[in-house]
Here is the input.
Amino acid sequence: MSVKLTASALAIAVVTATSAAAREQVQVAGSSTVLPYASIVAEAFGENFDFPTPVVESGGSSAGLKRFCEGVGENTIDIANASRKIKDSEIKACAENGVTDIIEVRIGYDGIVFASDINGNGFEFSPSDWFLALSDKILVDGALADNPNTTWADVNPAFPAQPIQAFIPGTKHGTREVFEDKVILAGCEETGAFDALKAANGGDKKAAEKACIGLRTDGVSVDIDGDYTETLARIESNKDGIGVFGLAFYENNTDKLQVATMSGVVPSTESIATGEYPVSRPLFFYVKKAHIGVIPGLKEYAEFFVADEVAGPDGPLAEYGLVSDPELEKTQAAVADEAVMGSNM
Amino acid sequence: MSDATTPKGELQSSIHHMSARTKRRNAAERRFRAYGIAAIAIGLLMLVTLVYAILSKGAGAFSQSFVTMQVELQEAKLDKKGNRNIEEIKKVTTFGYAPLIKDAFEKVVGDRGIETDLKSKEMAALLSKSAASQLREYVIANPEKIGETIEFRFLANSRIDGYLKGRVTRESIANDKNVNAEQLDFADQLINAGILEKTFNIDFIIGADASDQRPEAAGIGVAMMGSLFMMLTVLALSLPIGVAASIYLEEFAPKNWITDVIEVNISNLAAVPSIVFGILGLAVFINYMHLPQSAPLVGGLVLTLMTLPTIIISTRASLKAVPPSIRDAALGVGASRMQSVFHHVLPLAAPGILTGTIIGLAQALGETAPLLLIGMIGFIASNMPQTIGEGLLSPNSAMPAQIYEWAKRADPAFYERAWGGIIILLIFLVSMNTLAVILRRRFERRW
Here is the structure.
């Protein structure tokens, strides 16, 4: 009897609730790099406004944008977080599903750092060191050859003879792209391998770039598909390991990790903001304009996110590790005007 | 052989003397027993290690450091016009409350004669970021208190809390930009003054998740409600469906190849990895039926699919265990088949069915994989549901998903909470399994 009652009560609850319209809270999904920042904002938003706390899901930039582009309506997310710019193919997929007016909001910059075990050797890297350590083909005596380096001393005589063991983000991460572009490709050009590869590919620049970022597959470089916590665990069990982390993650784990400099610059929010530290990338979120006015609090959330007191240089996001955007004012104006992508092109 | 009377090569048994073969067989048995004891010992050792690891790492989550201090709710900052208009008071955001906390620290230092070189901003940094919102909430609920000085109990931030728990030491903070040695000195003085202390933290059990900046404020309560609503859905759906299906299959269905195929498939379904049900749930319940994302209802539906085979199999087993003579007797005195099932067989099988259901629920409670796919990972469990409908449909997380989420976050304080969450989850699982055992012991009849 009671089972019958609960079952029917449940059925009624489901029917009434699904027919009852209007989702109350903003729904966000996407990049796990943006997740901490978005959750800090969501929490403060819930405290300071009469709207419920927005829900922020993780899952990765690509997964978030895919869901963002599924269509317009209460059952789709309102905001996609991304640690990279939206691709043309994604804008097209969005348009096919009726998601045409997208507001792009750049929230600031994220630094990518190289860190190793706190008790191990310290390193002062340059991009060419990483290229020589991890690329599958490098220049040996002026000719392209399979990468023969096994220790950091082989790469750069200034380094200790520590075996090369790198834990880098897997290909599904937005961080990987930045690592390839700003470190490996830069190193490729520095060492002259780029020109050799370009010549080998008949002068095709694209093919040479692609060849540059090909990494060795002999176990020296390990792709981490999980989060930074996994990279940290790998380094804790293999003291020779050097991992790629987000600046904020490193700053929360300074008792276990020591950070390496890149081209002589120590990564910090300051050195990234000035552009001295080379390995950084912008972080974004994308708002579905069609949902503004339908989902309560959506525009307020977007405006709150980029407000000076939140995303500014003294705000909680900067405190957590976000490098605040020097052009934040422009972004604020764009959000206030609901300026969609493509309108200013 | 010591026994000279036994002719060589001849098989002879005596109750006084053990033959070589008997000795070998006995030795084999002794060895087997030793293996068995060793196996159990290894199992126990692993259990003890596991329990020790969980308790030692997770116990910290149940206590938290608090700072008790007087805060003056300055009218000049909170209600400039002095008209106590709630809408105007609400305009002051949590950022506007930070100066109040700084001033309160200045006052504490002055009153208690604490010597420190810290600036008030650095002192205020000892507190959790939740302190300002705690103040704001209080002021909005009690606007008439503006102008008075009220005693508040604030959470200390995760680094200071870690210092009291021994996780953070003066060595470990050498490169930490979130806390410095002077702040730890100041914390020591606050401890001596009785202002900073570590006590039991009920908010961990009943509270909501918190953002990455304030791990000290995070609790598992909302995720627990998510799990509760999921389990209600599972119970309300899988018990009637499972029991009805098994009664029909066991008591009414003709035995032919169709029922055989169904039976084999139910057993197969029980062995399907749970992530498969997650993908199915995403495709059917969310993408096709348009049920809301991250809703405990969807989680419950997915887990129902997972739990059904378990319940059907255990229900059929307990129906089978009821002797046919009981059915025959009922039919013999004129009961219909349905009456014989519902009046006689089902009550006798009920303890077994309940046991199976509880074990199925316990399994579903600890399941994480399907929840990853229906959007229960992230910063989700932030609003406590107010009604049943909201509990089922508004986005929420579940206990195992919350634990997974905490284990991923950067601040080491979240790691401690992940272990604390495991303790709570284990308490639920152990008590559910104990209940199942008790039910079986007390009510199950054997023939």
About this structure: Chain A has two domains: 22-109+281-337, 111-280. Residues 165 and 238 of chain A are 9 Å apart (CA to CA).
